[in-house]
Design brief:
2 strands; mainly alpha; two-stranded antiparallel sheet; 3 domains; Four Helix Bundle (Hemerythrin (Met), subunit A)
């Protein structure tokens, strides 16, 4: 018997779902004695934590469940030592340049304590602790995938941003049946609103002064802030529910106009996307041929090539490929910042 966790269903005893980094299985006798044996399934992971025959009923007795799950996660990772800066760089390079899944696995398991801590910080909201652990783990995996050890930043400092981003995004998406946070501005407000409101409350501001201060702290216009506050403070109501206390009124949906985007809005969004894609293609076209090829193979393919693979094909070292890639990315960013259509996303 093995312990596991997968993104699709925390309680499932099946094989899980693909979607992250790799797969592995702890020995049932002792899940903490050794690294799990890796079954090479690209971009899939299962962290082994909870025995399926002892799982608690989901979302029942939330406080006790959180405590039990927290203990299980701590037990699962307690024997994986923290990494030194030198070890992080060595493992990250092995994964980034050679596709070494064992190295990536060590990076994940040695930093799972951070996922446990951050999931605990958010678990008093509407999602269960196990759900937040799964999303935080996905953020950690994305950090491993994107981390560049040559930038001089410790891995955990970089990974913490991804872990929080995945947890917050999950909370925003599951808070209501109605999609929230569908724009970058709304997501910015959601991530900063709590601390900003507490700061404004301590300053004793109300009315227009309160909104002006929130606008200053969060960095978006007050209309967006007011809209998000209203949506977060509300609750779901069925549009089929009748209006009136007697239950005999007409459905609420009769009072709403169509909410679909107008043809003009759809055309505008499509045109904006085409403009950005054209700007990116133009920027890449201005690179030297060798840098174009590196960008294509490292960033534009469904399965990106490693630095070693690109270097072997070009007859140069992987370090030289890395240098050319960094230079090409810098040139692309500079070009896109000068282009009005893409300067906000460069």
């Amino acid at each position: 018997m093995s312990y596991f966790m997968n993104r699709g269903d925390f309680r499932s005893c099946g094989t899980g779902q693909q979607g992250t980094l790799w797969a592995g299985t702890f020995p049932a006798s002792d899940p903490c004695k050794a690294m799990p044996r890796v079954s090479v399934v690209p971009f899939t992971v299962r962290l082994n934590t909870m025995p399926c025959h002892e799982e608690p009923l989901r979302r029942q007795h939330m406080t006790r469940q959180r405590t039990d799950a927290l203990a299980l996660y701590h037990n699962a990772v307690r024997d994986y030592p923290l990494l030194t800066a030198e070890e992080e760089v060595q493992l990250a390079r092995a994964w980034r340049e050679e596709g070494d899944k064992v190295a990536a696995e060590k990076l994940v398991l040695s930093n799972m304590r951070a996922v446990i801590k951050m999931a605990g910080q958010f678990s008093n909201q509407h999602a269960s602790f196990s759900d937040l652990m799964q999303e935080g783990t996905l953020g950690l995996l994305r950090a491993v995938e994107r981390y560049d050890p040559d930038r001089g930043v410790r891995f955990l400092s970089y990974a913490s941003w991804w872990i929080r981003a995945y947890i917050r995004d999950y909370l925003l998406k599951t808070r209501s049946l109605v999609r929230l946070g569908t724009t970058q501005r709304q997501r910015t407000v959601y991530s900063r609103l709590g601390k900003a409101k507490e700061e404004v409350r301590q300053e004793g501001l109300v009315g227009e002064q309160r909104l002006a201060r929130l606008e200053e702290i969060i960095g978006v216009d007050r209309k967006t802030i007011s809209s998000m506050e209203g949506r977060l403070s509300g609750y779901d109501v069925s549009l089929d529910a009748p209006v009136g206390s007697d239950g005999d009124g007409v459905p609420r949906s009769n009072f709403f106009a169509g909410m679909a985007a107008s043809p003009e809005e759809e055309v505008g969004a499509s045109q904006e996307a085409r403009t950005r894609n054209a700007s990116l293609a133009m920027a890449i076209a201005q690179l030297p041929p060798r840098e174009q090829e590196i960008i294509r193979r490292r960033h534009l393919l469904e399965t990106p090539h490693t630095l070693q693979e690109v270097g072997d094909d070009m007859g140069v070292s992987r370090e030289r490929v890395r240098q050319l890639e960094v230079r090409a990315m810098r040139r692309l960013r500079d070009f896109l910042r000068r282009d009005p259509a893409t300067k906000q996303v460069a």
